[in-house]
Design goal:
Two copies of one chain form a homodimer. By secondary structure, chain A is an all-alpha fold. Chain A has two domains: 75 residues, Multidrug-efflux Transporter Regulator, Chain: A, Domain 2, CATH 1.10.1660; 53 residues. The first copy, chain A, is built from six helices and two strands; from the N terminus they run ααββαααα. In chain A, strand 1 and strand 2 form a beta hairpin. In chain A, helix 3 packs across helix 4. Chains A and B meet through helix 3, helix 4, helix 5 and helix 6 of A and helix 3, helix 4, helix 5 and helix 6 of B. The first copy, chain A, binds a DNA duplex through helix 2. Chains A, B: Pfam families: MerR, MerR-DNA-bind.
Chain lengths: 138, 138
Amino acid sequence: MNIGQAADQSGVSAKMIRYYEQIGLISPPSRTDSNYRVYGPDEVHVLRFIKRARTLGFSVEETSVLLGLWQDRTRASAEVRDIASSHIVALETKIAELQGMVKTLSHLVHCCAGDNRPDCPILDDLAGTPAEQTSKGH
Amino acid sequence: MNIGQAADQSGVSAKMIRYYEQIGLISPPSRTDSNYRVYGPDEVHVLRFIKRARTLGFSVEETSVLLGLWQDRTRASAEVRDIASSHIVALETKIAELQGMVKTLSHLVHCCAGDNRPDCPILDDLAGTPAEQTSKGH
DNA sequence: TCTTGACCTTACCATGATGGGAAGGTCTAT
DNA sequence: ATAGACCTTCCCATCATGGTAAGGTCAAGA
């Protein structure tokens, strides 16, 4: 199987497959006489694993650890669960942060007439004009 | 005022002030004879505006537009509100995406014994092992 | 006056994960 | 034989930020 087919079957672009190889996340595959990379079902399986982990928001670094644990027959599931749990915490922190932004912005948008007049509480807030300070006044 | 003081007063690092100048987000300040950048209250005000916009998750590009609108006395507030509104949509999309990840991961973590045994539904899911496919079975 | 330390300057490199493109080699089907 | 679809490596760009290095400047104190 060439890299293009491996890409199609795994959902990881050829570009990224080469990158993952370069950074050592996956091991270099064998090559044909003409230097083409050759992949088999096992390699594609690994690529799918990576794809799934990335889709779940794990960094490449975390994915690398998970991959190691996956290939370690003797690992404790607790180890994996800890990684997943901290990842959840990180995601939730990020979510809370974004929600804070949405909250502030929604408030500002709600206060903005949104017509042809130049008065705009959103800009006033960004500028730090005291009139409409995010979450206190009002 | 030197760049360090402007940085302290605006919350934007000196490094970033120079960067914003370089990419044209802010205009080059005047210089002392010894080539030091000189800032006044107006420049700091602009920097604070930028800081606030970035904190609210606007990209530098969007911030640039908002800055232009801020400085345009005749702009319609509707224009600003539209930018803010689309930004809210983008944030909410991102939030939903992260929440999807959390949901899937929470489910997996919940299914994982987390002990010394190697059996791990989290890894099974990543590997695409049919037993525990995220959101369908169970 | 000299020194020290805190500031400033520019220039370059790194991050993380991805995409784009160029220049050239290979394979397959017509 | 040729066209077109693949592959190879190498370099560059993104986005916003931080770091570092080599050198200039300034203010305060001995």
